[in-house]
């Protein structure tokens, strides 16, 4: 194995000499790369596709751009409309955003006899609705009193997510890949699910749990993540497909691309969203194994998960998210080098073929297409935020020119079936409007609200106190739907938090307002509880001290008057000055 790897390594070194790999940070911006004009071309691209979808394909899931009609693909819920909703706001179109919110509320129904992909429904539908819900106030929608802890789009997201829960009822906690939205998991459903289809829920499901107060979503997502972690190989890798009943790996190829990709992405994004060290340490462990076994000259290959021997020396277009993910953990130099390798492939074909044979430097048979995927543009957007390297804008320029030249048709933009002869396919995936156009626009729009650095924000009053929203730091789900991490702290209804509030309410069950808003205890013991030492009952202050030391609370019922508290991280209580 080692000899084979060494020889492959030296072969790749020799081969690398053939490909022009630009050094990181090289090249000034193309003379006269007018960012504003490219931004406007991206906007025009969005509307060309979006308006034809509405005209020719709505209420179907997707537009068929060559025949100017529509088809249902992933379900039957006007998928492109849900997926494109937050892009409308990022482009600044509040009136259409508001109109679509009303259309979706009236027209979308998840009580349908449809077999849906658990993964796709989560990232596109649940993710799209959650993101739109959290952005709806910014878009000028009249929101409910309890927003962001309630609202029609949140109820729709929750309803869609509930339809997916039956898939998680397996001995391992790893979900089936397909679920019937009306009847649950079909008898005879295959138990084999890809790794990404198991590990790509924590962003949406944790957000749902925090907003609705129902912990079930975050719980199942975490259980699935942990099951994958537990079943990694001795050398620290995970394969491509696993049996969710027996936990046996069915496809044992390990890599960063199709079938695995967003599992790694969600460990990082889940860690950031939830400030969760455990998720991040899982990722960093994987990252070491990935570097050790799959990385050669800033390319990543596929290897056998138990032995580490190379199984496929191919680059898949889906892997192009990896430099963006590396930039999120601060590994910008490595990210940039890998990005530049991928960019050479783009320049060779005017797009990224689904598979690219690294040693041969050419496409793989039957995998020559480019369905207008966003991943390389997504990485460019992240890396441009990190480095401002003008090479990244050049990729954006190339993408706009390429997509317009090859893919644009009268009725929208068509999947490129073959990058060698530019034949087209009669399909426009919903991710074109959700992701590709969004990341392109954000690359060319440095002042977009999404890039907010925290210098401006909104303060929202919820039934649980005030919270800060729209301060930036958005975490994009894997379908490019931004989730505001601050929103997760607005709705303190979850079990632990509820318990904490109840404890605090018990501890300070009587609030006597003095000028300083000090908190006083009116008696030393609870109902039906005799004081421990009646002879020398301690003063209130020392009782309070002793109680907080032991963290024992008197069992008192809460008063019925409204009690508005804010919990800081360390559990202090601030009373509203009202």
Describe the protein:
- The protein has about 575 residues and is of the alpha+beta class.
- The N terminus and C terminus are likely disordered.
- The strands form eleven sheets. A three-stranded antiparallel beta sheet has the order 5-6-7.
- Helix 12 packs parallel to helix 14.
- The protein contains 18 helices and 25 strands.
- The protein is globular.
- Strand 16 and strand 17 form a beta hairpin.
Number of helices: 18
Segments where pLDDT lies below 50 for 5+ residues? 2-29, 512-578
Taking all Cα atoms into account, the compactness measure Rg is 26 Å
Structural class: alpha+beta
Helix content: 40-55%
List the strand order in the largest sheet: 5-6-7
Identify the overall geometry: globular
Largest sheet: 3 strands, antiparallel
> What's the overall average pLDDT, rounded?
86
Distance between the termini: 71 Å
As a percent range, the share of strand residues is 5-15%
- Count of distinct strands: 25
Kindly list the characteristics that best describe this protein.
578 residues, alpha+beta, three-stranded antiparallel sheet, 18 helices, 25 strands, 12% strand, disordered N terminus, Seven-hairpin_glycosidases
